[in-house]
Amino acid sequence: MKIFELAFFFLASLLVVLGGFFTVASRNPIRGAMGLLSAIVGIAGLYLMLAAEFLAAIQILVYAGAVVVLFLFVIMLLGPSATSGRDTRSALPRYLGAGVLLAASVGALVLVFSASAGPRALSAAPTGMGTVEGFGRELFTQAVVPFEIAGVLLLIAVVGAVAVARGKQVDPTLAPAPGDDDKQGSDAARAVLTTHTKDVHS
Amino acid sequence: MSSVPIEYYLVVAAVLFITGAIGFLLRRNLLILLMSIELMLNAVNLTLVAYNRIHPLNHNGQIFTFFVIAVAAAEASVGLAIVLAFYRVRRTMRSDEADLLRS
C-alpha cells in the first residue's frame, strides 16, 4: 500500500516537473502546450493524494479542458508565426537574471528545508474532506460572496476578451470609414489598436 | 493516502514555480510566457492544497485554490486576446517587439 502511494506520487511529480520543463524549454508552442497539459494532469494526481478530489476534477475540467484548448486554438490560429525564431539580442542579461533567480531559489529551498524538523507522516484526512459535499458545503456557506464575485469576474473576462480579440479588419490602404465613431462597440481598446496599426503601416 | 510527507509536495511545487519563473524571464515567445504564468499559478495552488492537508479542519486552502483557478481562467482568456491583438498590430509573437510605449 505504502509503496503504491510513493510510486503514484513520484509518477505524478515526474509528470509535473518534466511537463514544466518542456513547457519552458520547447521552441514549438504546441509542444509547450503539451508540456503544460502534462504538468496539469500531474498536479491533478497530486490533488487526489492530498484529499482534494473535487479540485482534481476541476483542475482537469478547467485547465486541461479549457485553458490548454484555448492555447491550442490560438496557436492553430496563428499558424507558423506562433513560433518565434531564435534571437540572440541581449541574451546575456536574461540568462544572468535567470541564473541569479535560480541560485536564490535553490538557496532558499535548501535553507528552509535544513531548518525544518524533517518530514513527518501525515495523519489521516477526516472523511468528507475535499469531496463535493464537504467542499461545496463550506464554499456555499462561508465563501458565497467571493463565489458570486468570481462569476462576475468571469463574465467581465469573457466580454473583455471578445472586445480585445475581435478588433477590426484594418486595411492600411483605406481611410477609416466615416460613420465609425457612432458605432456601438468602438471602445478605447479598438481605437488604440486602429491607431497603432496605422502607425506601423504608414 | 497519507504516507507521503507534506514536504515532498512543497518541493515539487517549489521546483515547478522556479521553472515557471525562469521560463518567464528567459523566453521571448508571448504564448510561452503565458504558459509560464500558468505553471506558476499551478505551483501556488499545489502549495495551498498541501498546506490545507495538514490543517484539515476546514477547506480554506482548497477554496482559495478554487478562486485562483477561476482567476487563472479569466487571465488566460484575456491574455490570449491581448496576444491576438498584439499579433494583429505587429505580426510577430516576440515579446520584445512590444515597445510602442517606449519612446
Automatic annotation (TrEMBL), chain A:
Keywords: Cell membrane, Membrane, NAD, Quinone, Transmembrane, Transmembrane helix, Ubiquinone. GO terms for molecular function: NADH dehydrogenase (ubiquinone) activity; quinone binding. It catalyses: a quinone + NADH + 5 H(+)(in) = a quinol + NAD(+) + 4 H(+)(out). The chain crosses the membrane at residues 6-25, 32-50, 56-78, 99-119, 139-164. Signal peptide: none annotated. Its EC number is 7.1.1.-. The keyword Cell membrane applies. It is found in: Cell membrane. It is a multi-pass membrane protein. GO terms for cellular component: plasma membrane. Pfam families: Oxidored_q3. NDH-1 shuttles electrons from NADH, via FMN and iron-sulfur (Fe-S) centers, to quinones in the respiratory chain. Couples the redox reaction to proton translocation (for every two electrons transferred, four hydrogen ions are translocated across the cytoplasmic membrane), and thus conserves the redox energy in a proton gradient. Belongs to the complex I subunit 6 family. This is NADH-quinone oxidoreductase subunit J.
From TrEMBL, chain B:
GO terms for biological process: ATP synthesis coupled electron transport. Signal peptide: none annotated. Its EC number is 7.1.1.-. It catalyses: a quinone + NADH + 5 H(+)(in) = a quinol + NAD(+) + 4 H(+)(out). One of its GO terms (cellular component) is plasma membrane. One of its GO terms (molecular function) is NADH dehydrogenase (quinone) (non-electrogenic) activity. InterPro entries: NADH_UbQ_OxRdtase_chain4L/K, NUOK/Mnh_C1-like. It is a multi-pass membrane protein. It is found in: Cell membrane; Membrane. Keywords: Cell membrane, Membrane, NAD, Quinone, Translocase, Transmembrane, Transmembrane helix, Transport, Ubiquinone. Pfam families: Oxidored_q2. The chain crosses the membrane at residues 6-26, 31-51, 63-87. NDH-1 shuttles electrons from NADH, via FMN and iron-sulfur (Fe-S) centers, to quinones in the respiratory chain. The immediate electron acceptor for the enzyme in this species is believed to be ubiquinone. Couples the redox reaction to proton translocation (for every two electrons transferred, four hydrogen ions are translocated across the cytoplasmic membrane), and thus conserves the redox energy in a proton gradient. Belongs to the complex I subunit 4L family. NDH-1 is composed of 14 different subunits. Subunits NuoA, H, J, K, L, M, N constitute the membrane sector of the complex. This is NADH-quinone oxidoreductase subunit K. The lineage of its organism: Bacteria, Pseudomonadati, Myxococcota, Polyangia, Polyangiales. The gene is nuoK.
